[in-house]
Batch of 4 targets.
Target 1
Amino acid sequence: MRELHTWVSLPVKAEFAYAWHEHDSAFNRLSPAWESTRMLRTDGLREGGRAVIALPAPVGTLKWHAEHFNVVPGKEFSDRQLQGPFKCWRHRHEFEAISEQNSLLHDRVQYELPLSPLSDIFAGWFVRQKLSAMFAYRHKVLSNDLAFWGAWQEKTVKRILVTGSRGLIGRELTAFLRQGGYEVIGLSREASDSANTVQWNLTESRPTNAGALQDGKPLDAVVHLAGEGIAEKRWTSKQKENLARSRVEATHNLIAGLKELGLSPKVFISASGVGIYGDRGDEILTESSSPGEGFLGELACAWEKAAQQSESVFSARSVQLRMSTVLTPRGGALAKMLPAFKFGAGGRLGSGKQWMSWVALDDVLYAIVHTLETESIRGAVNLVSPQPVTNLEFTKTLANVLNRPAVLPAPAFALKLALGEMANELLLCSQRAIPEALCKAGFEFRHADLHAALKHMLGKNQL
């Protein structure tokens, strides 16, 4: 039987750390971002509670059946494999108080591989390395989340509507907000069995089913993330119209529809993009910088203007989050880049001299909550890392983290030939944006450095 004992210092009481693990979303928060592990079913954290987990496998998925035992609320719990990839697996989580406001989490794992001891010779080192990377990731996420929620135990916002709740950011944000104690109502174009979901195609003026909003309770805030993917299709005239409708017209419809339902949120946060600045070379861009030229600049200006109507319609505090490239291996730009870079086929885009603003997905989640709860934050907000990089630096850093070469550049003419106008505005333009408004409002980025952020989210850290 192999053993692994790891521990992490936590900036909260042991009882608070234990309670964090009781949320349904805790497993997914702790699951490595670089793997497609997901919870299929759970009975919750209780004695005898069972769970079924889908694990990535060479072909399809592998189901892991587990059971909780030795559950002592506030102090410890264990889980064991009933069916899965190991011959035996037991994991004890023990929460130890070390002061009035700090604690230690001990992870004690006992495991045995199938066909042991023969498998130990050929695969033992690999499994040990995978477990080390997994717990390094889990501990960093856990300590960051607990430090963040520990500082926001008192909240002014209670009930939030999240549009685009099934998108990459919306899905993660919805789970994160619920874990923090908020009541969250999702909005989706598709029908849902969930009682906490509104069905509404925002290109239509009225929702198909707004039952979740018609219970007489007030709505405190809206986080409006819905919008067709900007890079999903080539920018034909028709596609540009679709992109505008899914942002500008959808925002008008959302505000008008909520007013018709008799709802008046106090905070209205809407997505926007750093594309509003256009191609600006080496210029440092803050929220006070003027808009730039091009389709994205015009689209973002119209989108923000539509969102600002919430100020007059609801007397709401209106915030427009100018997002940059959001990095996570679970989707978006980074997920599309990874296959080429893992095979050593990555490279700079064009000259590589253009500045690239970026932000880690976890910092997006933290920043949105910070914005919801900070009254002084209003208007445009650059949601970007305080350390932008050039495309060449990004390319070298990603290749270095993956321990691969990056020697196959994509010439500008080839990108323009393949993507047309989209290449100029998404891949070759230069935007050196910094988060002046967030920093002035006291927000602390947990993943400001690109190299450290990529190592964390791609599982390259070891205990």
Note: DSSP finds 14 helices and 20 strands in the chain.
Target 2
Amino acid sequence: MSKAIQTKLIEALAVVFSLAYTWMYLKGELPEGYIFAGLGAGLFAFLCWKRKIYAESALQFFYIGMAVYGYNLVSEGGTPADQISLYTHAIWLSIATLGTVLLGLFLKHSTDAEMPYLDALTTIFSLVATWLMINLVHENWIYWIVIDTVSIYLYAKRGLKLGSVLFALYLLLALDGYFEAIQIF
């Protein structure tokens, strides 16, 4: 089997596992869904590293850790968090913006990253969104809507077409998650 076919197979599995997790999250099928989250993240970590999307690769390792954390939290009876204030969101957004600039500068000057600032943006903001998601804060979906939109472009530009399609599906799922009454899926 050629390397190109192996890469496409790994990418397809990563997409399937990642979609399974998000679908299960939306349907409340946790903690089992976190197993798929960890598997999909592991495969994407490998793929992103190969395509020189370094911060995104590191983010996938964070996702693996969050999958373990989420599994344990929900297994122990975790419940949705109270809605967080606009002030708290402003703090998260300020920290994430500063982190994006700093990580983007690092990637630009210390690596051969092709799109350092977009890589940094999706990575840093995903840290915040994941934390909100794992702690069952409903507004996590707003963050994901923005992240998924940028990620569609980032993955497409780096030749990960199935990954780009995954983020398009994630975008639809995020819209569904935020506007629960619409029930797209």
Note: Residues 86-110 form the longest helix (25 residues).
Target 3
Amino acid sequence: MSEIKLTDIPIIGFSGADVPDSGVINTCVHCGLCLPACPTYRITGSELSSPRGRIYLMKGVSEGRVSLDDGVFVDQMSQCLNCRACEAVCPSGVQYGGILEASRAQIQRIRDSGHEMTNLPPTTQVRTAIKTPIGERLIRRFVFGALFKNMGLFRAFSRGMKIYQKIGLQTFARKTGLIKLFGMAESEAMLPAISKQFTVPTGQVFAASAGIKATRRVALMPGCIMSTVFAHVHDATIRVLQKNGCDVVLPGGQGCCGALHTHGGDMDGGRELARKNIAAMEAAGLDNFEAIIINAAGCGSTLKEYAHMLRDDPAWHARAEKFVAKVRDIHEFLAAIVLNTADLKPLPLVVTYQEPCHMAHAQRITTQPRKLLKSIPLLKLIEMQESAMCCGSAGIYNLTEPEMAGQLGSRKVSNALATGASVIATGNPGCAMQLANELRKAGKHVQVKYVVELLDESYRGQTDA
């Protein structure tokens, strides 16, 4: 038998920071009501691919019956979409997202430490080497450690992607097969067209529309992808808020919300970005804002969890609570005020609505987007089947688990196309990119738009093709 190194010995139990809360794990009564709501269970039919099964694995690790580096445990923590659909239907109120993210943080820590499982005896119930490959470590370091933490770098990268598309390099790379050669065909296909100017927040104030009395002062959270690739959605959001009597402020110093970091197991990275955004909003005059507006579901969910993320930080927890109390999803905010319907003009479109998971399940915002769509004259809203089932985007899930993501994306688009709608409305960048990519693969010329874009088009009396 070959020599067994200390780094090859199974790791028993959770340890260190970000340990999954045993109280939350034990709240699960194993009733199984979460199973029909779980996308991966619906696809696989496997008990372990359900929230109940994954909680069973977490409990096994916490009690020392399953090693932290067990292949089944590692795979299932990765396969989960973290869509939070289970939370929305759980009668016991299990806060599943928190224990999943903590489990991923535990796994990522030992992966980055170089732990290997190659020399264990044949009887060991471990089937997956867990060491992070050097290439993946370098990519993670660049993407999560630099790109998403430096908005100057992020915007430069986005401009590079814009040039890549504009001068024909994208077309050349696709036609010559270079993208396939580097194994990036699926991920590159997700890149949307980047054509708008970037919204660069440096403290700009956009006053309420002419002829409309300013009754509210709000801050808009620009974020990273939303302020570059989806800058046009920010433009639409600002115009809609202006039409509803809002002075809109874009505080400087903001950046990525940290959603991708926390979902991927980099809790420290997520907390670092949370502190940065809280400080930026405080510097801009947090107390003077009625609300902090967010127009991306995944970002909004994370912003609303800053107090939980910083619960063990006495210097920041109270500040985070004050910040969170102001955060409002754009649909949530508009549906709660007296909407300016007098200026809405007819928009004769057939629309179906795809519910972003972190809006419907994590934030429990479901009726508000529909209410806004129904307020638009001549717009016909047709509900699709399984509108709240995950589309497979889930942050970077469509890159890390492309097979499952593809099945879910295809299923979502099929349900949307069955309605006969010419527009699929949504409220999250990942969903928008996933839906657009699946529509391209299906050869269907159906548009994907944000709900707030449709409102903006109605206010302006024109449909943007």
Note: The beta strands are 204-206, 216-220, 246-250, 291-294, 327-329, 350-353, 380-381, 423-426, 447-450.
Target 4
Amino acid sequence: MFFVFLVVLLAVGGWYALEAFKIKHGYPTSDALGNGIEPGDDARAAALEAENAALRGQLEAVHDRLETLERIVTDKPSQLEKEIDALKTLSDHRENAPEVD
């Protein structure tokens, strides 16, 4: 019985400490349904959504670069050499192509 009382006491104390932390540092206090959100938070939420979208885009770009690096590291050397030679050939063809005005 004492153990149950202790667990409930710790849970309530933890919740209280979290709410106090939120208030002290300026975070809005709300329940899981979003009740209690202060007016003016719509602009802040929109700014955070825009920032999240930008960060997701950057993360996707980094992910694509990481996939390329992983492929370079794990491919067989002969396959990598073929791809590099193909790119060099393509570059040479572009440099030697006549200019169209």
Note: The chain has a mean pLDDT of 79.
